[in-house]
Structures are given as C-alpha cells and as structure tokens.
Amino acid sequence: MKKPKIIKNLKLLEELIAKLLMYVALFVVVAFAMSIVVTIISRGWPAMTWEMVSQVPGSSFLLGGDGGILNAIVGSLYIVGASTLLGLAISIPIVFYMNVYLKKTSKFGYIARLSYDVLFGIPPIVFGAFGFMIMVYFGMRASLLGGIIVITLLIIPVFIRSIDEVARNFPREILDVAYSLGATKLQTLHVVLRQILPGVATATLLAIGRAIGDAAAVMLTAGYTSAIPTSLSQPAATLPLAVFYQAMSPIEEVRQGAYAAAFVLTLIVLALSIGGRLIMRYFSKDKIH
Q1: Which pLDDT tens digit goes with each residue over 95-124?
Q2: How does pLDDT run across 128-162, given as a tens digit for each residue?
Q3: Dist CA 145 CA 251 (whole Å)
Q4: 53-286 maps to which CATH number?
Q5: I need a labelling partner for 55 at 20 to 30 A (CA). Which of 3, 6, 37, 188 fits?
C-alpha cells in the first residue's frame, strides 16, 4: 500500500516542479519584455516632441542640433509598405500552387518547403550581403529600390512558411466538392483564399514585424540620408538605422533621439499588432460565409 502512495506523491511533486518552472520561465520572459518597454518609454517619451517627428534632421542634428527623425519614419514606411505588397503578390500564388496544383506527396513540393524553411532561418545580414552583391553587379547604388528588393526577399519565406501552414490544414473535402460542381482549380482559389485569410493576416503581421525592425539588410542596400527620398534611386533612412547611428553618439541629446526613434518604432509595431488582431478577429472562420 505504501508503494502506490509514494508513486502518487512523486507524480504530485513532478507536477509541482513543472508548474514552478513554467511560472519562473513566464516571469523571466515577461520581466525581460517589460524592462525593454519601460526603458524605451522612460527614455524615449521625454525626447518626443513635435519637431522630432515632423522634421528631417538638420545640418547639426548629429551634434545635438535641430531637426527630427521624419526621414527615418517615412523611409521605413516606404520600404516596409512596398516590400509587404510585393511579398504578398509573390507568396500567395506560390502557396496556392503548392497546395492546390501539387499533390501532398509531391517531391517538388517537399523540396520547395524545405528550401523556404532554410531561407526562413538565414540571418538578415546574409540577405543584405546578397542584395548588395547583386546591386554591385548591376551598378546600382544604395537606394530605396535596393532596400525594397532585399526586404522583399527577406519576408517572402516568412509569408510562404506562415500561409502554407494554414493552407495545408485546409479541408481537402471542400476542394473535392468544388471540383464535383464543375469548378476549375483557378476558380477554387477564391474559396481557399477566403478560408485562409486569418492566416494571411497573421503572416503579414509577422513579416512586417521582421521587416520594419531589420537594420543589417537595409544598411547595405538602402543606405542612409537626412532627406526624404522622392524616387526609387535615392537612398532612404530607416528607424532601426536611426537608432543604431544615434545610439553610438557621445552626445546625450543625440542619444535621446535614438530612444525617440525606438519609441516610435515600438508604437508602430504595437499598432500593427493591434491591427493584426482586429483583422484576424474580423476574418475569423466563424465570420466567413
């Protein structure tokens, strides 16, 4: 009778230890995240002025002079917006082809998914170096177009990997019903798209979050400038690079600008997260008819 009781007590102890470890891990992660947010807010909010977000850097900005980070804000929005649209336009047809036109046992589909998994794990600096090599080959300088191209290449694996996970769980019976009613494969894409819209919204949110926070890739391809680009051939500043360059300055006023840029970047990511959740809720499956 004692042995079953000892075993029961050991199981209770194991469960208690497991819960304790989970609580500790949760506390560490939340504390770490909150410390970052509190530091950005406490250091960035005092530096936030209308001049900071509405003006481009002046001639003495890096010496603690006048101006703001409008060039980095606009540059980030240009690069992320264009690369997101391009990434979606390229990724969605690829996902449809792998899940509608190819069989589940297709070797080509397996190799394609494996390739995108590998690309998903490659560091952004590698994409930046590859993009820079291509730009040098074609005689291009660091520009807005270069930043858009390399960020598009960076987020395409994110789009494909995320949307493909949702599309692979799509009920094949719906496709069979559509085919039995005489619909072509191209016509069934509309049905598939409506069903995987929440996954597309999630993938878009993940891709934008990775794109807007990257500094390594755009450092080599987009360059940096104090002006707002008016054409694709001009260099473009971004918020991560604004944080990078200003945070290294020995001047306190300039470092405060780095925290202001980090604060704006955090607000943009927060807005995207909230917007993404609202979109996913709106396009949830129980609302799709």
Answers
A1: 888 887 777 777 888 888 888 888 888 888
A2: 888 888 888 888 888 899 999 999 999 999 898 88
A3: 32
A4: 1.10.3720.10
A5: 37
